[in-house]
Amino acid sequence: MHIVVCIKQVPDSAQIRVHPVTNTIMRQGVPAIVNPYDLFALEEALRLKDSFGGKVTMLCMGPPQAEEALKRCISFGADDAILVTDRAFAGADTLATSYALASAIRQIEKEQAIDLVFTGKQTIDGDTAQVGPGIAKRLSMQLLTYVSRIAELDLANRTITIERRAEGGVQLLKTRTPSLITMLENTNELRFATMPDMIRAARYPVRKWNKDDAGIEDLSKIGLKGSPTVVSKVFGPTPRAVKAEQIPVDKATPRDIAVNLIQAMFTQHPALEQDMLERAPL
Amino acid sequence: MNERFDAIVVGAGPAGNAAAYTMASAGLKVLQIERGEYPGSKNVQGAILYSDALEKIIPDFRDDAPLERHIIEQRMWVLDDESFVGTHFRSDDYNKPPYNRYTIIRAQFDKWFSSKVREAGALLICETTVSELLVDGNRVVGVRCDREGGDIFADVVILADGVNSTLARKAGFHAEISPGNVALAVKEILFMPQEAIEARFNITEDEGVVIEAIGKITDGMMGTGFLYTNKDSLTIGIGCMLADFKGSPNRTSPYAVLERMKKHPAIAPMIAGGEMKEYCAHLIPEGGFYAVPRVFGDGWMIVGDSGGFVNSVHREGSNLAMTTGRLAAETAIAAKEAGKGFGAASLKAYKAALDESFVMKDLHKYRDMPDVFHRNNQFFTTYPELVNRAAKTMITVDGVDKKTKEREIFGDFRQKRSLVGLMGDAFKLWRAFR
Amino acid sequence: MSDAPAPRKPAGRGGRNLELPEHLKAYKGVWVFIEHDRGSVHQVSWELLGEGRMLADTLGVALSGVLLGGPDDNLTAFANEAFTHGAEACYTVRDAVLDGYRNEPFTRGLTDLVNKYRPEIVLLGATTMGRDLAGSVATTLQTGLTADCTELKIDPTSRALAATRPTFGGSLLCTIMTLAYRPQMATVRPRVMAMPKADTKRSGAIIEDTLGMVETDIVTKLLDFIPDANTSKVNLAYADVIVSGGKGLKNPENFKLIWDLAKTLGGDVGATRPVVQSGWVAAERQVGQTGKTVRPKLYIAAGISGAIQHRVGMEAADVIVAINNDPNAPIFDFAHFGIVGNAMTILPALTEAFRNHFAIRRMKAA
Ligand SMILES: Cc1cc2nc3c(=O)[nH]c(=O)nc-3n(C[C@H](O)[C@H](O)[C@H](O)COP(=O)(O)OP(=O)(O)OC[C@H]3O[C@@H](n4cnc5c(N)ncnc54)[C@H](O)[C@@H]3O)c2cc1C
Ligand SMILES: Cc1cc2nc3c(=O)[nH]c(=O)nc-3n(C[C@H](O)[C@H](O)[C@H](O)COP(=O)(O)OP(=O)(O)OC[C@H]3O[C@@H](n4cnc5c(N)ncnc54)[C@H](O)[C@@H]3O)c2cc1C
Ligand SMILES: Nc1ncnc2c1ncn2[C@@H]1O[C@H](COP(=O)(O)O)[C@@H](O)[C@H]1O
C-alpha cells in the first residue's frame, strides 16, 4: 500500500502578531509549524500503514525551510518526504497550489502506484479547505472530505468505506481507491515519536523537487500567474468605536452589580427585554 | 544498543550551541537535545549580545545573524519616586565597525545560531527532555530522554541546560539552587514604530541605547531594571533576588515591580504607546564566584547558566555562556585527539582554561558584590532618594546660597544614615568592586 | 490562499492578466446554491440570498437560486421559499442520483448549469456540503474561489465581487477579487450574514434542467446517513441567547454557573477553545474561528479574555456582556457592557437577579 500525505508548513497563528502601526504580519520570530490539521491526516495514514504495511510518502509545497516540517513528519514514522520548492510557485492561490501538488503526485505515482492521498481539513493560514478537493478533481480521484473514520479498506478489491461528517449527521460512503481523503480534526491522537525515529528524522535527506522535477507542464497554471484570485487589500479589524460601558463595581455588592447591568441593558435595549421575557422558563 | 556519539549536548541556548558548533566543526559526532519546540522557544526574549564571545566561535557572524541595533549609548539611572539622577555615556567610537554590542531578540538569535550548528554537522533533536544522566560507576556515559528508546550513549555529555539544571542536581553535581543565589527577572517586549524609537532615543537607524536603572522601583529589594532599543520594539525588564521576593514585606510580585518601573515618570514617556508583544519571567544565576559548582568530572562538563556563569554586575550572561561552551568543546576536541579518554583527568583542562579566561577572572573580581548588595538594602531605598534630593536641591534656583544647600544635603545624608554607616557603605562598595 | 503577504498593488504583477477577457463578459447574474438535506433547507442559504440580493441590485442583474435534488425532494416548495427571500428565479435539477449529497453528481450538476447559464457570481454556504462542492466546482471550472467570507461587496471600478475574509486566524482581513475569470465564487459561514426578512408576496420563475448521469456512472455510493443523536438540541449557531465561559472559570465545577445562568435565560451554553480542550464541555459548543460563528441577541462572556480567534465567532452578537476580573482584558474593547469582577460571584448574582427581574415583570403584566 502506498499513501501520499500532503502537509503544509504554516506560521503558528497563536503566536502571530499584527504590527499595530503598519498592519502587517510580524513573521519574525513566529515559529513555523506543521499545519495542525494535517497531523490528523498523517496519523490516520500511519495507522493504515500499521495495519496494512506499505509506505507513507509526505508531500509539501513551500519554501526551503519547509523541509523542517517534513522532517517532523518523518519522526512520527513516515517513510519518505518530498518538498516541492521553486520560486515559480510563489504567490499561488488554492487553484494553482492544487495544480502543482497534483502534478507532483503524478510524478510520485510513477515511482510507485498510489492507493490513497490524504490532506488536512484545512490550513490555519489559508483556511480555505479547497486544496484537497482541487487535487482530487485534477487527478480524477474520488473525493472524500471531512472524513471522521475509515470503516473499511479493501486493498484487493480496491474499495474503501468511510464515515463523513455532514450537517446534522454522518454519511457512510463507499468508493473506489485511489481516492483523496481530507481528514477531520480530533479524529485520532498523534503518536509520540521514538528517539531512534527522531534521530532518523534529524538526518533524513528530504527530496527537493523544482518545477521540472514536479512535472509541471503548463507554467501559466502555477504561482501568481496561475492564480485567479487577486488580493486587493489587507487590513486590520476595525476596532469598535466605543469600548464597553462599565457597570460600576466599586463598593457595589455582586447583587447590585447584577441589578445595575440588567437595568442598563434593558433600558437601552427594550426589545431584548421583551424577547428574553418570552423565552425565559417560568 | 543505540548508536553512539562522541558528544551529547543538553540544551540549545547560547552555551549549548557554542559547544555543539565548536565540536561539530572539528568533526566530532555530536547530538544536541533541546526540550523546547525549537531552539529559543523557551528563552527569554530581547537581550544584549556581546560580540567578542561569538566572534571567537563564528568570526563572520555579522553577515547573517539577526541583529537588531548596535549600542552606542549607555545610560545609568538612579531613581527615586519621581526623579532620577543619571549618567549617559555615548561615543561615536561605538559607531565604528566592528561593533561591540548589539541588541538581539533571543528567539530569533537562538534559531539562527542553531541553524549554524546544524550546518556544521551536529544533529539536533527538539521537543525532547533529558530526564537523567546515565552513569556507569562514577562515569557519565550518556543520557536518558523522555521518549521510547531514549537511552543514548556518548563519550562526553555537556550540560548546557540553563539555570535550573535539574540534571546536574539529580546527578549530585550541584546543590539545590538557593533563592539567595538567583534573581527572578521579568521582561516585556513592547512594539513601537521604528521612527518613534529613533526620535525618542535620539538615534538613527541601527543605533541603539541601553538604560540601566536602580532605585526605589524595586521596593527595597536588590535588583536592577533595564530598557533596550530593538529595531521596532523596546525590551523592558527588571530583576530582583528571588530571596527578596520571598521575603518582601509588601509581598511585592515581579509583575508589580515591572508595572511600577513602567509608570515611573522618567520611564513612562519613553515607552508610551508601546504595545505589549510578549511577557516572560526567567531566573538568572547571580551567586557569582562562590556559587560556581564543580564543572567537570568523568565524562561530563557544565557550561553556561547551568554552571552559574553570569556576571550580574555587568549584566553579562550569554557571553560567558558562549565562552564556557567553546572552552568545554575545545577540551573535548583535544581529549579526543589525544586519545586519552574523557575522564576527569583529561577534562580538567576545561577548568584550567576557564581560570585563564575573563570568565573566572571577572567572577573573582566581583565575588563579594552579590553579598554586599544583598545585605544592605539601603543601596536600593535610602540612597536613591538622597541622591535625587541632593541633585534637586543643588539644581533648583530658589534664592538659597549654594553653601547652605551643600550643608542641607550633607545633613540629609547624615540624618538618614550615620557617618559611620556612610563610610562603611562606601568601603563595602569599594571592596566589592576592587 | 497564497501565504505570501498581500501585495498592495497587485495589478500586472507576475505578468498576469487582470482584465476580464471579452468572452467572459457575457456572464451575468448572481447565483446562490440552496443547500438542503433530508427535507429542510440550511438557513445559510437564505442568509446568502439576502446578501446576493444586495449584490444583484448593485449590479442591476437577476438573483437566482440553484436547487439540486432527488425525486422525493420538495424542490418546488424550496424554490418558493427562495423567492420570498429575494430570488427572482430558481434553477432546479431533479434526478435520482441527486438523492442525498454526493460530490460527483452535484459537482457535475452545478458545473453544467454554470456553463450553460453563465452567472457572474456563485455563492455557497461554508458548510461541509458547500465547501466540498465549491472546491470541486471551482477547480473544474478553473476559476477563483474565496472561502469563508465575512463581507461581500461589488468593487465600483471593476464591478467585480470584492470578498473580504479573515486571514491568519482573524488577526487580519483581506479583500480578494477574481478579475479575469468567471464565475466568481465565494463561500460564507452560517450566521455571518444577517437573515433577510421573508416577503411572502414575492414569487419567481422555476427553470428546470436535467442531469446527464446515471447511477452506474457514479463511483461513490451513499450507504447510510446516521443523524446526530442530539438534533433536537438547540443549534448553537442559531441560538438567540448564549452564555459562554472561558478558562477564567478555573474548573469544571465553576463552569456549572454558566449552565445555571443559561437555563434561567432559556439560552444556550458556549465556550472558548481551551475550555473545550480541557473537556469541560463538548466540542460543538466552541465559539470562534475553529468553532461556531454565532449571532445571538445576547452573548454573555464570563472569564473569557477575548482573543481574536474567539472574537471572530461572536462579535456580530447584538449585545455582548463581558465579565472579567482584568480591566485590561481585550474583551472589553468590543463588548457593549462590561463588569470588572470575579465571575464566580457575579454569575450567581446575575442568575438570581434575572430570575427576580423576570418574575416581577411577569407579575406586573399579569
Ligand atoms: C531577563 C534576563 C535578561 C538577560 N539579559 C542578558 C543580556 O542582556 N546579555 C547577556 O549576555 N545575558 C543576559 N542574560 C543572561 C543570559 O540570558 C543567560 O546567561 C544565557 O541565556 C545562558 O545561556 P545557556 O545556554 O547557559 O542557558 P539557556 O539559554 O537557558 O539555555 C538552556 C537550554 O536548555 C534547555 N534545557 C533545559 N533543560 C533541559 C533538559 N533536561 N533536556 C533538554 N533540554 C533542556 C532549555 O530549554 C534551554 O533552551 C539575561 C537573562 C535574563 C533572565
Ligand atoms: C489556530 C487557532 C484557532 C483557535 N480557534 C479558537 C476558537 O475557535 N475559539 C476560541 O475560543 N479560541 C480559539 N483559539 C484560542 C484563542 O487563541 C485563545 O487562546 C482562547 O480563546 C482563550 O480562551 P479563554 O479566554 O477562555 O482563556 P484565557 O485567554 O486564559 O482567558 C481567561 C480570562 O479569564 C479572566 N479571568 C480569570 N479569572 C477570572 C475570574 N475569577 N473572574 C472573571 N474573569 C477571570 C482572565 O482575566 C482572562 O482574561 C484558537 C487558537 C488558535 C491558535
Ligand atoms: N503548499 C501545500 N503543500 C502541501 N499540501 C498543502 C499545501 N497547501 C494546502 N495543502 C493541503 O491541503 C489542505 C487544505 O488546505 P487549504 O485549502 O489551504 O485550507 C491542507 O490541510 C494540506 O493538507
Automatic annotation (TrEMBL), chain A:
> Is-annotated flag, keyword Electron transport?
yes
Q: Where is the Electron transfer flavoprotein alpha/beta-subunit N-terminal domain?
A: 22-218
CDD domains according to UniProt: ETF_beta (cd01714)
Q: Which GO terms describe its molecular function?
A: electron transfer activity
Keywords assigned: Electron transport, Transport
Q: What SUPFAM superfamilies does the record point to?
A: Adenine nucleotide alpha hydrolases-like
| Gene3D superfamilies on file | HUPs (3.40.50.620)
Keyword Glycoprotein among record annotations:
no
Q: Which domain of life is it from?
A: Bacteria
Q: Name one Pfam family in it.
A: ETF
Protein family per UniProt: Belongs to the ETF beta-subunit/FixA family.
Task: Please report the name of this protein according to its UniProt entry.
Answer: Protein FixA
Automatic annotation (TrEMBL), chain B:
At the top level, the lineage of the source is Bacteria
InterPro entries to which the protein is assigned, alphabetical: FAD/NAD-bd_sf, FixC-like, FixC-like_C
* Keyword annotations from UniProtKB, A to Z: FAD, Flavoprotein, Oxidoreductase
Q: Which cofactors is this protein said to need? A: FAD
- Which residue intervals define the domain FixC-like C-terminal in the entry? 369-434
| Residues spanning the signal sequence | none
By sequence similarity, the record places it as follows:
Belongs to the ETF-QO/FixC family.
Annotated protein name in UniProt:
Protein FixC
Organism annotation: Candidatus Methylophosphatis roskildensis
UniProtKB/TrEMBL annotation, chain C:
Which co-factor is required?
A: FAD
**GO process annotations (BP):** fatty acid beta-oxidation using acyl-CoA dehydrogenase
Annotated FAD binding lies at: 272-273, 286-290, 303-310, 324
Drop me one GO molecular function for this one.
Answer: electron transfer activity
What stretch or stretches form a coiled coil here? none
Domain of life of the source: Bacteria
Cofactor: binding comment? Binds 1 FAD per dimer.
InterPro entries attached to this UniProt entry: DHS-like_NAD/FAD-binding_dom, ETF_a/b_N, ETF_a/FixB, ETF_alpha_N, ETF_asu_C, ETF_asu_C_CS, Rossmann-like_a/b/a_fold
User: Which residues belong to any copy of the Electron transfer flavoprotein alpha/beta-subunit N-terminal domain?
Assistant: 30-222
Q: Does the keyword Ion transport apply?
A: no
Spell out the Pfam families in the cross-references: ETF (PF01012), ETF_alpha (PF00766)
Print the keywords alphabetically. Electron transport, FAD, Flavoprotein, Transport
Which family would the database say this protein is a member of? Belongs to the ETF alpha-subunit/FixB family.
Report the protein name in the record. Electron transfer flavoprotein subunit alpha/FixB family protein
